[in-house]
Amino acid sequence: MPSPNFPNLPIxxxxxxxxxxxxxxxxxxxxxxxxxxxxxxxxYLQKNQIKKVLIWGALHGNYLASFTTILRYFGFxxxxxxxxxxxxxxxxxxxxxxxxxxxxxxxxxRKEAEQSFSERxxxxxxLCLQEFGIHPAQSNxxxxxxxxxxxxxxxxxNGIKLESKRDERFYHTxxxxxxxxxxxxxxxxxxxxxxxxxxxxxxxxxxxGVMVGEKKATWIPxxxxxxxxxxxxxxxxxxxxxxxFTEKTSPNENISxxxxxxxxxxxxxxxxxxxxxxxxxxxxxxFYTSTNIILEPIYSAKSLLQFVEIQNIxxxxxxxxxxxxxxxxxxxxxQNLPLxxxxxxxxxxxxxxxxxxxxx
Length: 360
Ligand SMILES: *Cc1c(COP(=O)(O)O)cnc(C)c1O
Description:
pyridoxal phosphate, TrpB-like_PALP_sf, 16% strand, 1-aminocyclopropane-1-carboxylate deaminase, 6-stranded mixed sheet, ACCD_DCysDesulf, binds pyridoxal-5'-phosphate, globular
């Protein structure tokens, strides 16, 4: 059977009062930008007539769910090694991984899974995908996206320039050939950010990466090796392009976040990373009420809610999110540049967070 064509992955941009949101969350199954990454891998496998893929990662994560589903759909044999701390936990992602793996082994922790993967690579005949699918083919999948996105951003900003010729900021930035927009995206493995950085380096678009999982200090030393594995040019990245997400804790808040966090039955609550605080859940609900856009708690809500505030003017219906003027967390953030935020999806796993909205 010939394999199906890759779906169209259109770029859609929604203007919220102050920011433009690049809507990769609208791509099928909420897989977001993972579609673009895996498209490069699929192309690589087809070109090299490789039929089998060995893949490993967190059972409840977006990476394994999207990659196993898409690879299976395209006719590849998928062998999966996963890990989960809670053997009973059921999630959307976990269902997808189980359904789309031809064989699957699940371990109790990352270390055991990694060992098992490394053992299996010795005899596996096919592509052994490194953690998070880090591979030069991933960059090939992302590059056309940055290219089209750049074009779209220019179209949007040129349109505005024509409309409001007296708008200082657009005049100013263009005259000096300086940056004309900021593109914000989160750093998980960092593959998207590094690929965007590589593409936009000499362009008028300033790429800003937001650390959500690990700390800047531990991620920066990994950059060179990641660039190598992604087949990107090795280059140093100026520190001001990477923002540390700092979780604000108020004095009467438990540092562990346990007392103030809601443990959703649908998220992997055994990891601190995946815990969502009730304040964040409320913001996600308000954001959804005012924009119809679902943020997800691990990536998009963590970073975006630092940039915007939702003004609850009427007390009942939140207004459109506005850029927050006091970004004490982000001292290097240039307020004057138009901001494009890439929503990378992943929200379907967390639909329960907005369920309450319908019963209010
Ligand atoms: C995978 C993922 C990311 C991070 O992408 P990296 O390239 O690994 O940094 C961000 N957001 C969502 C929703 C994701 O699923």
